[in-house]
Design a protein that fits this description.
Length: 370
């Protein structure tokens, strides 16, 4: 069994029994007094996705947001996701049956619609379910059919290039990139224990093809459309709990008033595909006391959110502040409870989202096993 390490390296001689699955024999582990994690997102341009396993937090997996475009589900179903960390979008091309015959002129009217952040509720159909419910979603790329001819040809908006990490960004702001990465046309078919992807530039008259095999040790196998190569992104399916990332979600202009898809900075997703759940604890004005006193017997199983990867999402911070305290800061009145894929419980509180100079993209949190 893995156990959480202590940053301070202060080890007492006593041992405790903590963080065991119900079917595990108890083992002795060093006393755990809590640990602080710096999420190396990379500053205000936030170039990195950071995948963190609370049971092995000193070894996060980090990739550039532009390292991948498509994720191919490695489970029994045949589903494909797009990269929400670079504001990708996708749409079926009407009446298209031959990928080689599709030209840019055929999709010109679609290109203005297949976008993120247009403040139009209709654009939600062009992104993956922000909840992460890819197996049942009716947006994005539909389930891959056994019959090749039933699989549509898609127009793919490759999203945004990342901003120069050395650019000057005003304190308290972010720059996630504005330059477009371009377009592709794709068709995805089933293959033996995997997928066959056909892809090309919009005006190309021949397509390239690649076969992606399912690796069941991972939730998804990833592919880069620009390099034409597979790439390793997420850790193995149960080896991450939460990730810091830019993220395409739904934005609201008021209660119940959706404005469609929007590109968020400083976002956190949880590994719902592997059964990770989380919920928020409202602590009011006494955060230190409430966090310190929260024990395993205080966990409310009914509050865990297992069907929405945004259980933490943007709820840990504000980017507009309040009337009395403007600007971006971590909410001082809440913490979170997380249950990982192996059934272990943790409490988390977020300490900062900026460095000493006020630059965003420098998040940290502390956690303790329960």
């Amino acid at each position: 069994m893995k156990y959480v390490k202590i940053l301070s390296f202060i080890f007492m001689t006593a041992t405790i029994q903590s963080c065991f699955s119900a079917d595990e024999d108890p083992v002795s582990v060093p006393p755990m007094t809590g640990s602080e994690v710096e999420a190396k997102v990379g500053g205000p341009t936030e170039p990195n996705q950071v995948w963190i396993d609370l049971s092995d937090f000193e070894k996060p997996t980090i990739n550039k947001r532009t390292d991948w475009d498509l994720g191919f589900y490695a489970g029994e179903d045949y589903r494909v996701i797009i990269n929400s960390s670079i504001a990708m979008a996708v749409a079926k091309i009407p009446n298209a049956t031959n990928i080689n015959e599709v030209k840019e002129a055929d999709v010109a009217s679609l290109q203005s619609m297949v976008q993120v952040g247009t403040f139009n509720i209709a654009n939600l159909q062009y992104i993956d379910s922000p909840k992460g419910n890819f197996l049942s979603q009716t947006s994005g790329i539909e389930a891959i059919k056994e019959n090749d001819s039933e699989n549509p040809i898609y127009l793919v908006n490759l999203g945004r290039e990342m901003s120069d990490p050395n650019m000057n960004v005003a304190p308290g702001s972010t720059s996630l990139g504005v330059e477009a990465r371009g377009w592709k046309k794709i068709q995805i078919l089933r293959a033996t224990n995997g997928y066959k992807i056909r892809y090309a530039d919009l005006n190309a008259t021949t397509y390239q093809e690649y076969t992606i095999l399912k690796d069941s040790e991972y939730n998804f196998n990833f592919f880069n459309l620009k390099t034409g190569l597979p790439v390793m992104i997420q850790p193995k399916k149960k080896n991450w709990d939460l990730a810091f990332t830019a993220f395409t979600s739904e934005v609201f202009m008021g209660p119940g008033n959706s404005a469609g898809s929007y590109f968020f900075a400083d976002f956190i997703i949880t590994n719902t595909t592997s059964g990770v759940g989380a919920y928020q604890v409202d602590a009011g004005a006494n955060l230190d006391q409430a966090y310190a006193s929260f024990k395993l017997n205080n966990v409310d199983e009914s509050k865990f959110v297992f069907d929405d990867q945004r259980a933490i999402g943007d709820k840990w911070r504000t980017t507009t502040g309040t009337a009395t305290t403007p600007g971006a800061f971590v909410y001082p009145d809440r913490f979170f409870i997380l249950k990982d894929a192996e059934g272990f419980y943790f409490k988390l509180r977020f300490n900062k989202m900026k460095d000493a100079q006020g630059n965003r993209g420098h998040a940290s949190f502390e956690f303790e096993p329960l």
